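FIELD: query
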Amino acid sequence: MKNYLVLLAGVLAVANGRILQADQIEAGSVPVVVETVKPQIMLVGIGGWKSCLGQANDQYISNRFFTLIQNLRRCRPDLDISYVMYCSPGLKAIRGEGQVRYYGRFGAGMVAEQSIGQSINRHKPSANTHVVVIGHSHGGWMAMRAAICAGNVDALFTLEPISAYQCDTKDYLANRTRKIFKGRQNIVPGCRRAPTDVNRMAVLQATGGNWTNIHLAPGTDAGDVYSSAIPEAVNYQVWAPRQGKYNAHHNLGLSADTWAIIERGILATFPMHQLPTIQYIEPSIPSVEPAINSVLEGQLVPLPATEAAAVDAASF
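FIELD: result
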């Protein structure tokens, strides 16, 4: 009579700190949920000329920018959203060769305008972080250049982009039509069109074609400075007339319609069903004896003949 040693079925295994029941182990390789991972999205805001007004919360577009972050966090709790903002202090930004201030995960600091792309990559929480870049006026021009430099930008939004080379501070002042110029218009073409000094095909490549350009609607595209449509981008027109001392170009960056377009664009870029929130790994399970494997599979293990005889003797 053969004797069988029945081992307890409650054999446990431990993989990466998680206890697994025996019936969860299959063929020595077990998919284990090690953690829930939210997709990381980093929003990059870049202000234009003289957009630094103090601290981060005092910047020109900061109110709309932080409201956007709050809205996204509320409607998309499945995303881990971080940010970095850049702003220009003003006259030092002549010809796009000055320093800009940033506020982000490393606190506050200064960086050269032409190095914003590298700075964006340094601020990314991880290599897998998705990047959305938003820039207004000179900041829109910087955003185009930064996208090329940073590479792999998931979405780019340019708001009334103006080249800092083709319309720098001096050109802007010369282009004004106020009474101090006695009604004379010193028209500088670069102050009244989208930048033509950036390789737009390179922008398309860096963004995968996900480039939205927002500019003034006909009738409000007037005054001393304004941008235009960009054929390579998806264009939206926004009605943002002059109000008080602020011109239409300025007001477009603060328009609720502008930021509604941006919010919709971001949500369309990151639909919930396309971003995995669970990270699975295949842990390395140490090899076990065939007898143990057989028990885990619900089988009885026959003892070797010598051990069976010993059991027989002990039993009687």
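FIELD: remark
The chain has nine helices and 14 strands.
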